[in-house]
Amino acid sequence: MTLASLFHVNPAAPEVIRIAARQFQVYRVRMLFWLITMMIQLYLLRVVWMAVYDGRDSVNGVPASTLLIYLTISSLHLFFLPNRIVFEIEDRISTGKVANDLIRPLGFMQQMIAIQIGSIVGSLPLLVVVIPVAAVVGQMHLPSPGNLVLYLISLFLAFTISLLLWMVVGMSGFWLLNIGGLRSVISIAGDFLAGALVPLWFMPDALRVVVQLLPFQAMGFLPASIFAGQTSGMDTVQPLMVQAIWVVLLLGIAKLVWKKAQRKLVIQGG
Amino acid sequence: MQYRLNFLMDVGFGLLFQSLGFVFVWIVVGQFDAIGGWSLGEITLLYGLRLAAHGIWLLLFSQLYSIDRQVQQGEYDRMLLRPIPALLQLMFGRFRVTVLGDLLGGSVLLGIGLVAVDIDWSVPKVLFLLATLFGGAALDGTFQLGPAALTFRYLDSMPLRVIFDSMFMYFGGYPVTIFDRPARFLITYLVPLAFMAWVPATILLDKTSDLPFPVWIAWCSPAIGAGLLAIAVRIFLKESRHYQSAGS
Prior knowledge:
Order of helices and strands of chain A: HHHEEHHHHHHHHHHHH
Radius of gyration of chain A: 19 Å
Number of domains of chain A: 1
Helix content of chain B: over 70%
Strand content of chain A: under 5%
Shape of chain A: globular
Largest sheet of chain B: 2 strands, antiparallel
Structural class of chain B: mainly alpha
Strand order of the largest sheet of chain A: 1-2
Oligomer: heterodimer
């Protein structure tokens, strides 16, 4: 099964996407408060980083404006990256709804992916508000056309990696039953390991080596670095390859875990 | 202990959530030696002071977290029926395990900070440090208990509490002098979270020249926290009379 067949369009899929996009409306107020919290965090990041730059234009070869753009786009990534899928899977396993999902004509994983895509589609109108606000709190500057194209490719790969990773975390619920703690730990550590607070440029060497071996940097740091213009031209080949490898790897893991999970399924209170 | 892994994950989450904030400062300050004239040791003390006070507050009031649900579902009824004040029941009811992570992280950082910096100790300073931990907890609590009072009328105060919580978390662990003017004004006078850790830390570290007001006000930090909490308690009790239980 290739990536294309995972997204194979079953006639039911667009409907699920549409419904999930509409369901997103329910979370409007919650998203607003998330947005405020995120902006406070972005503001703090800007203040702290500028305090350590202390008037210098550039530190370790990273200009202050590049860093600010990087931090801003990273915050936006965190806001829109796919994670609803893990909540959906968690909910369906713990309530036993998964039993109904399994008898639907659309495969369980395809349903979850469709819901996740729908939730992103539903959140897109927010960009109209979020981008200008983020630009004021942080700093925003569009990359060169070449970098913009590379960024969009990198962003797509980052979204796919994030989707697959959260899918695997969600499926671990078939064994662990309660994954709230695990989900929170991965989510918080993941933001950090994705370079949302400290870009990889400034991490101590030992930490950076570890971070480069994990998938999180491919979900945040790599596209943000391209957007900010710190990585461009031929230098983007390697990051894009790394991302592609993670997609293939996680796709394999997801398929394997799902195969095992089907035998493991426990319906609570059934 | 039905879900042992989950219990550990919860404690780990509390610890991780707060300590990553510190890891961030640690990396940044480590790379650049100082921030706003504060060394890594001094920042550690400041950060630990805030986190430990936050942990104390949570230890006493972690159940406040679920007040929205209790009021919406009418579970608050049960508290009113028992012969103990509802507020005390809220304090000593179920307890969220993540709290232990906050308290652990805060104590460790505070300990490291106290060892790392050279403090000119005196009896008033020791007493002041102890009072500060509780005053800080009270200040933190003021901006949780106060907003929580809104739940009785509006059924939902979570978003507001989350915003105050993130303000305390993001601004509380840094020297106030690094922020720009409007932000400094906000966190010193409007939501005076500066009094939770930064103001007391300037006394411990003899950095009172950074303060925008006379030193005696800084010595009053714990009293300011206690006074504000007393007001928040009054508001909470007054508003709790608007509790209507669940419909039906």
